[in-house]
UniProtKB/TrEMBL annotation, chain A:
One of its GO terms (biological process) is regulation of DNA replication. Residues 127-254 form the Proliferating cell nuclear antigen PCNA C-terminal domain. The keyword DNA-binding applies. Keywords: DNA replication, DNA-binding, Nucleus. Residues 1-125 form the Proliferating cell nuclear antigen PCNA N-terminal domain. GO terms for cellular component: PCNA complex. Belongs to the PCNA family. It comes from the Eukaryota. It comes from Vitis rotundifolia. This protein is an auxiliary protein of DNA polymerase delta and is involved in the control of eukaryotic DNA replication by increasing the polymerase's processivity during elongation of the leading strand. This is DNA sliding clamp PCNA. PROSITE patterns: PCNA_1 (PS01251), PCNA_2 (PS00293).
TrEMBL record, chain B:
This is Flap endonuclease 1. It comes from Vitis vinifera (Grape). Residues 372-384 have a biased composition (Basic residues). Keywords: DNA damage, DNA repair, DNA replication, Endonuclease, Exonuclease, Hydrolase, Magnesium, Metal-binding, Mitochondrion, Nuclease, Nucleus, Phosphoprotein. It is found in: Nucleus, Nucleolus; Nucleus, Nucleoplasm; Mitochondrion. Residues 1-108 form the XPG N-terminal domain.
Length: 266, 384
């Protein structure tokens, strides 16, 4: 038996909008800790990890750890039927092959039940170790979204480099090149407008802009975004969800391949 | 060719072992390709109408070169790293099958002459396709072309599929691409179909995973090989009246061909007098393949531009502009940095959650145990 009541229903709508283009089908995992999801895109280049902690729900009942396989496109279709102020309750019975989304209007004068078929999804779960990152950049999420969008009109890939000067986003395409540098800036009116750069070591990595652009669909969830970079690891792009948890995107970097060519393949 | 009806058998009994994948999602992967199969496809499909085929000035067919050139470029552009494996000497057991194919071709040639006389276009098309044979010259042409393109070529000691499977088992390539299902019988861990289909057909690549197949069928690899032999392979006849579905049932019931032979109703099923199933099994389990690193020189290098132009434009009448453009494509594809995958950084872990929806496999396993108890010979449809 599972029953999760989320007063701020629009949150779930936004979460789905943020991930449904990246992942088609995914298992939602429910435990006493919270409602979570881990899924990769079909080519296993990007991964999304979502956590909505149980404390963030008005009512949270989950008797045992269970997972529910859902088609995210279909789920999004259903959630689009909920009003932005609606309270959303997710319900499922043990052994059932459906999940129910209940939408209640704030004035309690309208209640809608949407039942969706569950799927049997064979998904791989990856273990993501805690890591020390060489550089962590926190900046306004809208700024990051703008940068990704602008650069993708010039090139396919973005080089993100962090140095003492700041963080540089650069790209190269048929028509020319583009470089955007953001410096640390904490003298702002509102804390969410700040750009904060923590750097232990300079780092420079190349990523496909297509994926970065897809991550920025999570911008409505948070005013700030945190980008964590290490030369041996995928980048983490994190959007914090107020009082509830986070949505994190991991993206494998592009690799130069020369060494691979000459070295004998073991 | 290959294993009779295996695709359907797997679709019915091990649906989770096959996954549709986008062609593009194989970027950066090393793939062993059964060259002879591809050349055969090219000869049938590329630039053909009726009995006319693409030829050079000397009148020699060039469909295989055209096909090999453009498809390989498509693979390289998508970031794949193809290794082509060519057939060596066929095993003795396959000679019978080859003789059969030879006679079928001879028949088709006769039919074709007849069709040409009557002028029936459909028939001409049909029979001329059947007369197609991959010659030594076709193979040599393609090898030369691939080497000029900087794509590695391996000449297998015997069957190409077996060599492909061996490359895949040893981790030298990610998967084997062929249309011939016996790659699975040779134990290729991952097997791709439709990788070499023209993009215009828009058929997704079908990925088969042998461990999942065995898991879903609930068989060991040895039992799977026996199943393939019973279903009908290139190396020996099968028993009349036993198709894939019956073979699967019998293997599940008795475990091996030996046990089946002891228990089967010999009145109902005629076992061929000379039935070298053990030899066939040996060919699948221990095929003749190279395993030395020295014999397997797998390296992707820069294309030989001049060589390609001489070979394709001067000797085989390809359009010079198109070849130059294609060479540019190969060069840009080579210079692209490749996209990493998350698996190279994070390792899979077992998720602790239990699906709320009971898995179908559990249901299936339950059904199977009841099925085993019921006598063989009943309907093959499972009942609740």
């Amino acid at each position: 038996m599972l029953e999760l009541r989320l007063v701020q229903g629009s949150l779930l709508k936004k979460v789905l909008e943020a991930i449904k283009d990246l992942v088609n089908d995914a298992n939602f995992d429910c435990s006493a800790t919270g409602f979570s999801l881990q899924a990769m895109d079909s080519s296993h280049v990007a991964l999304v990890a979502l956590l909505l902690r149980s404390e963030g729900f008005e009512h949270y009942r989950c008797d045992r750890n269970i997972s529910m396989g859902m088609n995210l496109n279909n789920m999004s279709k259903m959630l689009k039927c909920a009003g932005n102020d609606d309270i959303i309750t997710i319900k499922a019975d043990d052994g059932s092959d459906t999940v129910t989304f209940m939408f209640e209007s704030p004035t309690q004068d309208k209640i809608a039940d949407f039942e969706m078929k569950l799927m049997d999804i064979d998904s791989e779960h990856l273990g993501i170790p805690e890591a020390e990152y060489h550089a962590i950049v926190r900046m306004p999420s809208s700024e990051f979204q703008r940068i990704c969008k602008d650069l993708s009109s010039i090139g396919d890939t973005v080089v993100i480099s962090v140095t003492k000067e700041g963080v540089k986003f650069s790209t190269r395409g048929d028509i020319g090149t583009a470089n955007i540098v953001c410096r640390q800036n904490t003298t702002v009116d509102k804390p969410e407008e700040a750009t904060v750069i923590e750097m232990n070591e300079p780092v420079s990595l190349t990523f496909a802009l297509r994926y970065m652009n897809s991550f920025t669909k999570a911008t409505p969830l948070s005013n700030t975004v945190t980008i964590s970079l290490s030369s041996e690891l995928p980048v983490v792009v994190e959007y914090k969800i107020a009082e509830m948890g986070y949505i994190r995107f991991y993206l494998a970097p592009k690799i130069e391949e020369d060494e691979d060519e000459t070295k004998p393949q073991a | 060719m290959g294993i009779k009806g295996l695709t359907k058998l797997l679709a019915d009994n091990a649906p989770k072992a096959m996954k549709e994948q986008k062609f593009e999602s194989f970027f950066g992967r090393k793939i062993a390709i059964d060259a002879s199969m591809s050349i055969y496809q090219f000869l049938i499909v590329v630039g053909r109408s009726g009995t006319e085929m693409l030829t050079n000035e000397a009148g020699e067919v060039t469909s295989h070169l055209q096909g090999m050139f453009s498809r390989t470029i498509r693979l390289l552009e998508a970031g794949l790293k193809p290794v082509y494996v060519f057939d060596g000497k066929p095993p003795d057991l396959k000679k019978q099958e080859l003789a059969k194919r030879f006679s079928r071709r001879a028949d088709a040639t006769e039919d074709l002459t007849e069709a040409l006389e009557t002028g029936n276009k459909e028939e001409i098309e049909k029979f001329s396709k059947r007369t197609v044979k991959v010659t030594k010259q076709h193979n040599e042409d393609c090898k030369k072309l691939l080497r000029l393109m900087g794509v590695p070529v391996i000449e297998a000691p015997s069957e190409a599929e077996a060599q492909c499977a061996a490359l895949c088992k040893s981790g030298k390539v990610y998967a084997v691409a062929s249309e011939d299902m016996d790659s699975l019988t040779f134990g290729a861990p991952k097997f791709l179909r439709h990788l070499m289909d023209p993009s215009s057909r828009k058929i997704p690549v079908m990925e088969f995973d042998i461990t999942k197949i065995l898991e879903e069928l609930n068989l060991t690899m040895d039992q799977f090989i026996d199943l393939c032999i019973l279903s009908g392979c290139d190396y020996c006849d099968s028993i009349r009246g036993i198709g894939g579905q019956t073979a699967l049932k019998l293997i599940r019931q008795h475990g091996s061909i030996e046990n089946i032979l002891e228990n089967i109703n010999r009145e109902r099923y005629q076992i061929p007098d000379d039935w070298p199933y053990q030899e066939a099994r040996r060919l699948f389990k221990e095929p003749q393949v190279f395993s030395d690193d020295e014999q397997l020189d797998i390296k992707w290098s820069a294309p030989d531009e001049e060589g390609l132009i001489t070979f394709l434009v001067n000797e085989n009448g390809f359009n010079s502009d198109r070849v130059t453009k294609a060479i540019e494509k190969i060069k840009t594809a080579k210079n692209k940095s490749s996209q990493g995958r998350l698996e190279s950084f994070f390792k899979p872990v077992v998720s602790s959650s239990i699906p709320i929806k009971r898995k179908e496999t559990e249901d299936k396993a339950a059904k199977e145990t009841t099925n085993k108890k019921s006598k063989a010979g009943g309907g093959s449809k499972r009942k609740k």
